[in-house]
């Protein structure tokens, strides 16, 4: 069982403290949601775990299925990332095939697995020859998910994976992620500003505010019965038509 | 059409000149042969006449063209490689490497090139000035501008998510640069190469004309040098002097045309497009009897993008906005909701065109918005109907303070208002939206996103309009800030009784905020009812689908995961 | 570090680089300039005492007798004292005097022509961009093709047509030689009369670049939200065009001034030669043709300093017209 543990993670940009002493653990078969407003430091955490940004201090320890720490070189076989903007995360110059075949090759897998990957994200094999501009937002994000799976990753960091998509296809992509998580026994870090999907699609929730985790726990506990004042404000701010019509009140 | 015309002309002309330089010297005789037919005008045996010493101008021109092209290509390649190394590699590496490379490029850029070349050429004895020396010096003094352009572009590319994704996949740095970044820089590299070639040919011509060119070389510049020293123009031997310059000008012009086309590929906004005379066609102001309480009536409005295949963006839309009501307009990207909003205020731009329908504003008398003359339309805007756009970030002019942008409205619409009163009104609207009037002197970038949107709302209130159109005013904002702004809008509406058309993809937000909601899909209003009916009794399947797309925070958990 | 300090530091670095380049070039390239200079000096009847030789060696290199550092500091010292040596082509005048006589001509000619070209190009570019889709679009390729014409060729054609042919302008020179240089109205009039054609050449050849750059930025700015807001606000067209679109579109042209100024200065050197204009460009060529290395280097330095100075002024101005720059640099 692969686990990723984050201990005392801190990132400073010049004088600005983006992430301040954050610790948590991702375990296989569980989805952890990291919620917070933009600028709260959640994307910086994603980028540190994906090794795109170097932490100022703290450590990220990845334990392999054998219980041994995964060596630095093999880190990317295990940890992959899905980006927010599907229109920016695929190179307009290259085909879908390139986007999938490269990570396969880099991690010692045959190119012939491309159709299987496409099938995993509910796309047909003929998508391989297309270029990003021929795809819809939802299709692009599926390709991005397939790319993250290509190296055989066990830990997936999904940074606002649906916030740039049209509302009617968001749930489809989230359901796909949830299905893959169960089928492949992945650990998923779901980063979002949307409390509702965080609650429905994750087992555990971490609430971030100004670089710190202010509240954590099982998702229902945190979002239905928030203890921290900031979490309460967040939960109260989300639009809730239920309150207006079912309980008869006017906003 | 015009675009491909430019490209075809450019490529054709450049191709012809290159062909002339390649093949010409094989077909014409020895350019150095001296005959006793000095300064023969064009015609007969010598198509372009002869020089003072009877050399054939056409033969000289062919050899000189070849020489100039050779220099151009040499310098072009070297300068592009240099600019690539300093621009792309530096920008990708970042940190201190970028600092040093960029400082170096900028220093090379501000040190004037030709004077430096002249000084270097002056120090190198004439017999040691070979073509390669000149080319090298021109390349060294000519790469910096391109490096700056490439650096800016690479800096933007290297922050794209697909580059980050490639790094996460484990791609090596050189592969990320060569395979992920470089292909996307190709248009810019091509344009910079073309530019370097033109510049090199021009500079070499200048140098040779001054007698500082490569020894024993034959270029268009040396030809002009000999023509000038042979007093070609004073002897009225235009056929000796004009052709070399003309070849340079034509070749440069051709490459410039090619560069236009490349620019248009890089930045599609630059493409030529035909301007249409009117934004509204075929409008009959059939003002049907309307609701007494209505402030704005839209009837059967159609908007079409007149492209090669016309796109019908708004189809037969009819809406009534009552005094003081909030009308929600819901829909996904591309459903036509923004086009509709712009068409109501006639802000749509060509090729968008209102093909039929009416927009009538009721304020005492009925105003047929689509029939307003430009000056009437200008006066109508903001005074009766103001707008708040999605990107408060970009809706404010970044280079002037808030004060100037608020006062602009009053200066234009209330020219007689005294300055002190103007200032007071600006401060007053800021206080209304909860912004400290001391912020009037601030620039947009000094304000937070929420603050900027408040300023936009304050601006929309300046003239006490009857109607405010808000296009995704809170989408770019954080949940908490969004909540504050929404509360602010509800409060102001209650106090000031203006009507709002609120556009967003966020249906739950509309359900909470609006009185009535119109759901749009593919240009059509598929559902139009009170918020309560839309929520409790949705009629159209699409409305139901949209409603189901927003899981409720408080609802049953786990129902979605199947 | 503040925006202005950063800019100042950059230009000091650039100045140091130019000064050092000036020091390194004669030492790196083949040939023995000091010997050539001494021979020339002798021909002109100048003193060939060791002091004169030392002065040139400080400038151009001792051939390894002194260490590089010693030479370098002696050279910097001379520069600081304004000692650029003696010109052999204008013997016995000092290099600094030769430059001092020629510089005002060039500064006025190139300065005015550049300013005119910038204002015209940016103004026309703004209008062409704003009125996009009309016949004005044709101005863009037309003026850009003009900028691909060699300056000197255009200058000579203009001279042949307008001066020799029609007699509208003088053939060459900076003023009527019968007049005494001074601030008399006749002299100034004559200088303007003589400067018109060279200035015209520079304007015609350089306007295209400004126009194209401004037009492209204008087109981009017009699709920005703040222009849309300005239209929605019911502002007049002219106010929207000038205060919103053009005000933003002009920024890159100002920021890119350095690139363009280099081209203009380069072009004007050759133009001066064509018109035998008494400016610094003709003097540079005269120096090159006569192997007057001291004068050559002095002129290169002065041109560089002038270009750096102009860019510094423009950059400082840029800080004034775009508040974002000032704030951004305090963060990073």
UniProtKB/TrEMBL annotation, chain A:
Please name the GO terms of the biological process aspect recorded for this protein, alphabetically.
transmembrane transport
Q: One Pfam family this chain carries?
A: ABC_tran
What keywords tag this UniProt record? Answer: ATP-binding, Nucleotide-binding, Transport
| Ranges where the ABC transporter domain occurs | 4-235
Top-rank taxon: Bacteria
Q: Which SUPFAM superfamilies match?
A: P-loop containing nucleoside triphosphate hydrolases
Q: Give GO MF terms, alphabetically.
A: ATP binding; ATP hydrolysis activity
State whether keyword Iron-sulfur applies: no
**Region of interest: Disordered:** 219-251
Q: What is this protein called?
A: Peptide/nickel transport system ATP-binding protein
Give the species this sequence originates from.
Lentzea atacamensis
TrEMBL record, chain B:
The protein's location, in the record's own words, is: Cell membrane; Membrane
Write out the transmembrane intervals.
7-27, 69-93, 100-124, 130-150, 181-201, 207-226, 238-262
* Entry keyword set: ATP-binding, Cell inner membrane, Cell membrane, Membrane, Nucleotide-binding, Translocase, Transmembrane, Transmembrane helix, Transport
Q: Which domain of life is it from?
A: Bacteria
- Looking at the record, the residues that make up the ABC transporter domain are 298-547
Question: Which InterPro entries does the protein's record reference?
Answer: AAA+_ATPase, ABC_Ni/Peptide_Import, ABC_transporter-like_ATP-bd, ABC_transporter-like_CS, MetI-like, MetI-like_sf, Oligopep_ABC_C, P-loop_NTPase
SMART domains (UniProt xref)? AAA (SM00382)
Q: How does it sit in the membrane?
A: Multi-pass membrane protein; Peripheral membrane protein
Return the Pfam families for the record.
Answer: ABC_tran, BPD_transp_1, oligo_HPY
Q: Where is the ABC transmembrane type-1 domain?
A: 69-259
SUPFAM superfamilies in the record? MetI-like, P-loop containing nucleoside triphosphate hydrolases
Instruction: Name the family the entry cites.
Output: Belongs to the binding-protein-dependent transport system permease family. Belongs to the ABC transporter superfamily.
Official protein name in the record: ABC-type dipeptide/oligopeptide/nickel transport system ATPase component
UniProtKB/TrEMBL annotation, chain C:
Q: Which residues cross the membrane?
A: 9-29, 102-130, 151-171, 191-212, 249-275, 295-318
Q: Which Pfam families match?
A: BPD_transp_1
Can you say where in the cell this protein is located? Answer: Cell membrane; Membrane
Q: Its membrane topology, per UniProt?
A: Multi-pass membrane protein
What PANTHER family is this protein classified in?
A: OLIGOPEPTIDE TRANSPORT SYSTEM PERMEASE PROTEIN
Highest taxon of the lineage: Bacteria
Q: Domain ABC transmembrane type-1 spans what residues? A: 103-318
The protein's name in its UniProt record? Peptide/nickel transport system permease protein
> For this UniProt entry, what is the primary localization, expressed as one broad class?
membrane
SUPFAM superfamilies found in the cross-reference section = MetI-like
Q: Which UniProt keywords apply?
A: Membrane, Transmembrane, Transmembrane helix, Transport
Q: Family per UniProt? A: Belongs to the binding-protein-dependent transport system permease family.
What CDD domains does the record tag this protein with? TM_PBP2
